[in-house]
Amino acid sequence: MQALKGGNIMVYVKFFIKLIVNSIITIFVIGVALIFYFYFFEYTKIEQRDRIYVEDTGESLYLKRICSGIHFSAIIISIRKGRIINKKLDYCYFGNETLFYKLEGNTFYILCRSKAEIPPNFVKHVRIVQDTYSNLEYYDLIDNYSQKGYQKFPLSQIEKIRDKRSRK
Question: Whose C-alpha in 107, 109, 111, 156 is 20 to 30 A from the C-alpha of 128?
């Protein structure tokens, strides 16, 4: 009882207030970290993935449309299947992009709205040739890409259904 007399009770009250405040801050920081984790990693998903086999080299290229959250979209050309983007290994097209592509031998031709940076460590056996299209050319390609020998990526839902039916 002697320890509780006088000003000693205030020491205990201050200790418990600090403990409560620190607990609230810790819970807040953990909550923010979990929100960022789920927003940027868990919800990063591959909307569409096409595998392109290059017979001349025996390698596979993957065209991937990756989306994360509300505002992030990218098309990646990679030799890896996963959803992680590595600018040193992959061709990265950010934003709302539509690619038209064709493969001739070991050369992969791409028509795009804006060229991607050439990654320094991309596969050396497959040659990538990028060319840009204008808005007028884009609308012509939308209607006639298959007649010109190109394929489109990504496909809309209706085009995916038509593509599946044509393969049967």
Answer: 156
